[in-house]
Write a structure and sequence with these properties.
alpha+beta, Arc Repressor Mutant, subunit A, 3-stranded antiparallel β-sheet, 5 helices
Length: 116
C-alpha cells in the first residue's frame, strides 16, 4: 500500500479507491468513485450484481438475466454495459453469448471508500 496526500492507495489487484471520509478528494478521485456509485444507483443493475454475486460458478450468461429480471435482452445489455464501463463487471464472449462476472476488487474499493 502506498500513501499519498493523506489517502491510502491500494495497489495490485485492488482498485485505488480513496476514502471519502478520510480526506478531501481531488477531482480525479471523485470522478472515479462517482462512476462506480452512479452505476450502482439503479434497481436493475443492483439485481444484476446480486445475481452475479450469488452465481455458483461466479459468472452468468447474459441470456440468463432476461427472465428473472423481467427486462428485454437489449435492456439487460445496456445495464451490463454501464456496469462494465464503471469497472464493476467483466464480460467474456463465448460464441454468440457473453458471460459476466463481478470485479470484486472494484466493489470492495467502493465499499472501502465510504468506510470511516
Amino acid at each position: 500500500m502506498a500513501k499519498r496526500s493523506g489517502l491510502v492507495e491500494v495497489t495490485g489487484a485492488d482498485a485505488c479507491c480513496p476514502s471519502v471520509l478520510g480526506a478531501p478528494l481531488d477531482a480525479r478521485e471523485a470522478a472515479y468513485l462517482a462512476r462506480g456509485f452512479t452505476a450502482l444507483a439503479d434497481p436493475v443493475r443492483l439485481r444484476v450484481l446480486s445475481m452475479l454475486a450469488a452465481a455458483p460458478e461466479g459468472e452468468v450468461c447474459v441470456c440468463d438475466f432476461v427472465e428473472p429480471i423481467g427486462k428485454s435482452q437489449p435492456t439487460i445489455s445496456h445495464h451490463l454495459k454501464i456496469l462494465g464501463e464503471a469497472g464493476l463487471v467483466h464480460g467474456d464472449r463465448r460464441g454468440k453469448w457473453v458471460w459476466y462476472s463481478l470485479d470484486r476488487a472494484r466493489l470492495a474499493g467502493l465499499r472501502a471508500a465510504i468506510d470511516a
